[in-house]
Amino acid sequence: MDQNPVQPAEVDGRAEEDEEFYMASQWQLMWWKFKKHKIAVTAVLILLLFFGVAIFADFVAPYQPRSRHTGRVLAPPHSINFLSEEGGFNLRPFVYGFDYSIDMQTGSRIYEVDQDNKIPIYFFVRGEEYELWGVLSSDLHLFGTEEGGEIFLLGTDTMGRDLFSQIVFGARISLSIALLGVVFSGLLGMIMGGISGYFGGKIDNIIQRVSEILRSFPTIPLWMALSAAIPPQWTPVQEYLGIVLILSLIGWTSLGREVRGKILSIKNEDFVTSARLDGSSTPRIIRLHLLPSMVSHIIASLTLAIPRMIIAETSLSFIGVGLTRPAISWGVLLEQSQQTRHLISAPWLLTPGIFVVIVILSFNFMGDGLRDAADPYSSLTE
Fold first, then answer.
1. On the CB side of 376, how many CA atoms lie within 13 Å of its CA?
2. Domain residue ranges of the chain, discontinuous segments joined by +
3. What Cα–Cα distance (Å) separates residue 220 from each residue in 216, 246, 250, 310?
4. What is the mean pLDDT of residues 113-127?
5. DSSP letters along 161-214, please?
6. 313, 323 contact by CB (below 8 A)
7. What is the C-alpha separation between 376 and 370, in angstroms, rounded?
8. pLDDT > 70: what percent of the chain?
9. Burial zone of 140 (CB within 10 Å; 0-12 exposed, 13-18 middle, 19+ buried)
10. In angstroms, rounded to a whole number, what is the distance separating the alpha carbons of residues 325 and 317?
11. What class is the 170-378 domain?
12. Calpha distance 298→176 (Å, rounded)
């Protein structure tokens, strides 16, 4: 005899869950499964924070990226304090100012904390003027100090510019290049892969040989060769678009091969044959029947391609053949760390690399979650 009989309420609850599952759309099933991937959800929150900071960089950064503090060249990061040397607790955070002396042997500055110069940190403080998105004029910043004070959360660079402010502004270019590059390379990959897989024959052979040639070249030398073709007289905006175009022309091959393989596996399915017999044109069949059937896989693949774009831009700018000043990206900021003498005395110049690693890991974790969610039936029915 069953000692634990199933109650009618439990049976009804399971029936409702089963009905909800079988009536749900593909996107609902993907969302339910994606929510179970806690690391991927955390990664999305981190990326939203980075993109929010990039969008409102003028407001978040305490200084404009090109503002120079000539008396604070290669100044170390300020430490935020709540406890003063006298032992008292302060609700308002503060930093201590710096004094410096010149090393007569090396000529470098030696900074010492000035315990007598306590600088309070304020939120929503007035500071340098800016134009948000080139439209709204304001001087309100998320945090800062009163007039005469200074705060360098991540130190300053070789020109006395606040590194934190530059990293915040650099996020705009580094993240947007990755997104635009993935969009363009994704479109090119879907078009080339779709044509190659659907038509086959000579067209397929030509496209695949071009893809293999591009994939056979060492990545960094190929980037360098194409970047060298950018005219030196181009403006930062033109350089930006040129880098996006270069990354797109090289980055489409992986997605193109994946789309080709998917189309080869489904182009003879009944629903495609029905559309063909119904008189649908080839572009319509590819656009409305083949590509939508693999949209979840394409999204996951594009998400995993974004880190490669970020690494590409950072690498090109780091070795001096990508973006250059006055443009500001994480790769441009890392270029300063090439000089050993600066890096030894100012290791915080490597800080932009930490943000590159965080963003790349977040995109990878989010891509893993999307890739698992692209097959929602694998575990939701368990």
1. 16
2. 69-161, 170-378
3. 12, 12, 11, 13
4. 90
5. BBHHHHHHHHHHHHHHHHHHHHHHHHHHHHHHHHHHHHH-HHHHHHHHHHHHHH
6. yes
7. 10
8. 90
9. middle
10. 10
11. mainly alpha
12. 19
The token pair that represents 302 in the structure block: 């594009």
For 175-180, what is the mean pLDDT?
Answer: 89
* Cis preceding linkage at 326, omega within 30: yes
Do 61 and 141 touch, CB atoms closer than 8 A?
Answer: yes
Amino acid (1-letter code) at residue 44: V
Residue 126 has pLDDT above 80, yes or no: yes
Determine which helix (DSSP H) or strand (DSSP E) holds 218, and give its type and residue range: none
What is the token pair recorded at 147? 């007039």
Over residues 235-245, the pLDDT tens digits come to: 888 888 888 88
Structure tokens given for 180: 């635009």
pLDDT at 246: 83
Task: Pull the structure tokens for residue 203.
Answer: 């067209």
User: Which residue(s) pair with 68 in the sheet?
Assistant: 161
Q: Which residues contact 327 (CB under 8 A, 6 or more apart)?
A: 173, 236, 239, 240
